[in-house]
Amino acid sequence: MPLLRMNATDQGLHLHHTGADALSQIAEVSQRTGGPAIVMIHGFKYDPHADRHCPQRKLFGAQGANWPHALGFDQSKAGEGLGIALGWSARGPLRQVHRRATRLGLTLAELVGTLKANHPARPVHVIAHSLGSEIALAALEHLPPRAVDRILLLTGASFCGFADDMLATPAGRTAEVFNITSRENDVFDLAFETLVRAQRQGDRALGQGLSRPNALNIQLDCDRSLAALAQFGTPITTPKRQICHWSSYTRPGAMSFYAKLLRQPEAYCFRELQGALPDDQDPRWSRLGLGCPNVDICHVATESLAAVTLRLRHKATLFKRAFSKRDPDEPAFLTSACIRSDATTPS
């Protein structure tokens, strides 16, 4: 199977199982595989160096959500392309992990540069969830135009202002960006905005939408969006939860849609999708039935940290639960025993 498992650190890229230099392996494999290269990046709470939280097994492997399979990388077909399952240490205090993700943009840029150097005509795409979106965006300032073709940001934990800056770079202007959002993620967006210091006062998480001409916002819990996607032959089920950080890839139909975006760009033309999908997004908290902007909690993200210190203490339990909640659909929080049990349960 044309899939490379590797991990990114500040010291570079290393193969997951052996720790060997990954760039030389990319150069070797890239020259003898056709089709697109798709880099998959996980988000918060995973760590490839901790077995219990290893993304290579729980998200990119057969025991978990198996992104490679969902994106078409185990069919043994000609032109299947090259899949790269990119792990990184995403556990620890949220602000610290966010800074680490920003730094790893350079490492991702080195990976993309190696792919392009060895197979210039190959399309290179990136799909990233949560804080992995920060890595995907941060790489753009280190790359030349047309280095990355399509970027999928799944309920991304990054700021709109930072995304705007990165999409204004030469590589950012030539990439097509699909910003996958959901009001299911509002609690997590607020936690991110509150616990990570934005460079710009009042900056908001990607869930509030991007306004760049080459960025398309797709709200996955919007009935109008789901109806439009169904017309393109990509039905996605309606959400089951009011709050969920992982439904952007666990919802039935979602990963199939992403596979088509990355493998059939002509059939899923950016401009045609842009014309078919709603221009606006539902307001924050609408999924919870809260009348924003008059609800008290909605002001937290826009007030200065000094002014809301006491209130943040009161909200801390909510934020901690949001990021530590054991969701049965999220492999990052499953123990090995849970996964083995699921694997032996008849369908």
Helix content: 25-40%
How far apart, in Å, are the first and last alpha carbons? Answer: 26 Å
Number of separate strands = 8
Provide the domain count.
1
pLDDT < 50 runs, ≥5 residues: 292-316, 333-347
Basic shape:
globular
Please tell me the CATH architecture by its name: 3-Layer(aba) Sandwich
Question: Beta-strand level of the residues, as a percent range?
Answer: 5-15%
Any idea of the CATH class? Answer: Alpha Beta
Using only C-alpha atoms, the radius of gyration works out to: 19 Å
CATH superfamily placement: Alpha/Beta hydrolase fold, catalytic domain
CATH topology: Rossmann fold
Sheet/helix structural class: alpha/beta
Average predicted confidence as pLDDT: 86
Number of helices: 15
Order of helices and strands: EEHEHHEHHEHEHHEHEHHHHHH
Reported for the largest beta sheet, the result is: 8 strands, mixed
Biggest sheet strand line-up: 2-1-4-3-5-6-7-8
Structure in words:
By secondary structure, the protein is α/β, with parallel strands linked by helices. The chain has one domain: Alpha/Beta hydrolase fold, catalytic domain (Rossmann fold), CATH 3.40.50. It contains 15 helices and eight strands. It has an eight-stranded mixed sheet with strand order 2-1-4-3-5-6-7-8, sandwiched between helices. α9 links the parallel β7 and β8. It is globular and about 55 Å long.
